[in-house]
Specification:
530 residues, alpha+beta, elongated, 6-stranded mixed sheet, 13 helices, 6-stranded antiparallel sheet
Amino acid sequence: MNCGQIAISPTKGTDEFRPATYSRSRVVPKERNLSAWTLSRRFHLAPPPAAGTPNEDDRLELAWDGHRLLACRAGDDVRLFSTDFREWTKSFPGITNAIRKLATVRDVVLDGFVCALDEQGHPSFDALRAYVAKPKGGRIVFAVCDVVLKNDADLSPRPLSERMAALTEVLAGARDPLVRSEALEGAADAILESLATMNVRGIVARSLDGNYSAAATCVPTREPIVWERSLSAAPAVTNADKVLFPRDGITKADIAAYYDDVAPLMLAVMRDRPVVCQRWPDGIDDFTWFQHRLPPRAPDYIRSVATDSAPRGKVARDQWRDRRILIETREALGWMVNQAALTYHGWSSRASSLEEPDWVILDLDPGEKTKWGTVIDVALAIRKLLEMLELPSVVKTSGKKGLHVLVPIAPGHNATQTHELALGIASLVARLYPNEVSLDAQDEPRQGRLYLDFLQNFSGKTLVLPYSLRAVDGAPASTPIAWSEVTHSLDPHAFTLRTLRGRLDRVGDLAGPLLCGTVKLGPALAKLKG
C-alpha cells in the first residue's frame, strides 16, 4: 500500500494494536475435539505497542481506528474475542462467515481489527460504535494484521516475515469483509507527513525478524494513541423515579447522582480490584443477590479478571461467568448502579497482584449486647497497639453499626502475613476485653459480644469499600473518618447519601492513605511474636 492511499480493497487490510502471544504449550493438539473457544484460551493478546522510533527495516502498517479482535476458527466453528475474552461473534456475522469460508485452512487464529468505514472510506471508531449500537448500513471490514496458527502449525515463534507469507496463503481468495493490513511503502517520516492530512491515527512498526510476542512501536500522527476504548453505549439511568429506599424516598436517580459525584474517590480504590456488587432491584426491603461475576451482557467498559477460585474443566459459558468484575471507569460504575447495585465490596488485592494484599483488615462487628462505647474503646485500643508496632491505620464506618480498621501496607506481602498480624492484634485486644470481645463469629460462643473479625485477610475475602452505600434506612455510606472523630459521641449514621458531599467539601478524602501503603510488616510481626 502506498503511504498516500488509505482506500481498502478485498484481501488487503482499533481499540488497540496488540501483537498476540502464544501462551504456555507450543503444541497444538491434532484431535478434532478442538474448538474455537479453546483456541482463544491458548492465545492471548500482548500489551499495546509503546511510542518510539521505528527501525529502518521494520514493517510499517496503519494504526487501525477500530477494535482489536482475535479470530479463532476450528473447522466450521468460528468465534471472535477481544482482549478480556469478551465475545463479539454475534455482533459481526459477516466477519465470522468470511473466516469460515476460507478455503486454504481448516484451523486458524487471526489477529486484526474490526473497523467501520466512513463516507470517505476511512476507518472510523465513531462509526464502529454507532454500528454496534444499531447494526444498520455502513461497511464493516476486518483488517487482518497477523496469523498465529495455521492448521497444525503454531506460527508464534516464527519471524514476522514468515508469518506474513503464511498470511498471504491464508487470505488467498478471501472475501469482503476480510482485508489485509498491508505494509506502507517509504520511510517512516515521509509516511507520517503524508498521513498528517488524513483521518488516521498513526503507524505501527514491527520487526521482520521478531516473533509474535515481539514488542511493536507506535508513532502517532498527533497526540498519543489511546488503545483502550469502549464500543458500548454510555450508561443511562432507566426507571429513574423508582424508589429504592422507601422510608426515605430515595430514588434510583438519587443513587446514580450520588455515585457519579463520588466516582473519582471510589474508582481510585476500585481500580484493578475485583469487586462484588450487592444488588437490590426492588428496593432495600427485598434483597436479591451478590453479583460476583461479570454479567454476560455487560458492556465492554466493564473489565474482568479470572481468579484461582474459578472451577476447572467447565464448559465455556461457566468459565465466562467465573470472571470477576473490575469497575475502573465512571461508565462502568454507572452501568452497575443502573443494575441496582447499591453496595460494593472489594478484594484486598489487585487483579495485577492477586496474592499481594494492599491492607490488613480488622472488622469490629457489634453484637446484641455491645454498647457503642465498647466499639469506640476497642477501636482506640487497636489504634494504640498499632502505634506501638509503628504501623499506620485508617478507620472508617462500616455504613451499618460497626467500624473497620485498615493498615495500608507496601507491595510484596502475602495473605499469611496479613492474617498473622490481624490475629495477633485481635488476640491481644480479646485479652484486654475478655467480657466484651469475642473472636468467634458463632452466636453461642459469642454470647452477644463484639465480634472482632480477623478472618477477612485471605485471598477472595471482601470488605465494603469506602463511600459505598449500605442498603438500610437513611442510605448511610461506609465513610473514612479521622481518629480524632472516634469518640463516644461519634454518630456512625451521620454519613449518608444526602450528607456526604458536604463532609467531603469540609474534610476531603480520608481514604487516600489506603492507596499508597509503604510500611513493611516484618518488624511488627517480630514484635508481636516477642
